[in-house]
Amino acid sequence: MVDPFGVSDTPMHLIGRILAHDKSEVYISVMYEHINRFRDSDEFRDPLDLLYGCDEWRACLEIDDGRERRRCLFDLYKRQLRKAGADQVIHFDLYDGGQHKYSIFHASRHPRASNEMKAAIWSVDPGGGFVFHGGQTEQLALGVEPNFRPLQEALRNEFRGDRWVAIEEIEAFVMSDRTDYHRSQLRRHALVPMEDRGEIQVKSPRGKGHAPQTALSLFDSDTPPPRKRRNYPPGTEIRIT
Length: 241
Fold this sequence. Notes:
The chain is α+β, with helices and mostly antiparallel strands. The protein has helices at 12-19, 32-37, 45-52, 57-60, 66-83, 111-123, 149-159, 167-175, 186-196; strands at residues 25-30, 88-96, 99-108, 130-134, 141-142, 165-166, 200-203, 215-218. The chain contains nine helices and eight strands. Mean pLDDT is 79; it is low at 125-130, 207-212, 224-228 and 236-241.
């Protein structure tokens, strides 16, 4: 875990040295409010150049809208973490009573690490008015009533069409940094309600010497709903149409 005081203790080249190891992962706390407060101070330019590993952050600080300025800075930081060697970068914000406190970035080399980090964050009960917001879906807020509609929408956007998709491919998508959710939430909170609404079709073909295979096809709601199964076991054979 990297929890710096200010912005001068975590240069991007140091993060890159850590990420050079295949099994390494980095959990970084970024104090955006500190950066924003002193953005016009000349003495912060060199430390911020080191923090980002470039000087592109300066263009972000020219943005008048505070929300868009923060988005620009965070998107740049995620890109720089990828350039430094990360294959997966997830981002969550911590709020206290509606006020942004700090942001968490987790950089790793494998989707499994992202999945475990997201599961750990979801398992935390912040209490005391603290709330986590996901970096992928602004509707998501951990610490209040969970909202899984963005996960279902992400599945529709990614896989909707005529082709059959292996459950393993869908799991890999959810595990990755492309969602704020983790694999254990997929079946109960996404696939089951979507199947109940007739939004997915389920196939479990059986091949010689292989266990049943599950694949999913997302289609328009006006298509007749498939037979309800509510069961999505792993398998070894997939037929894509």
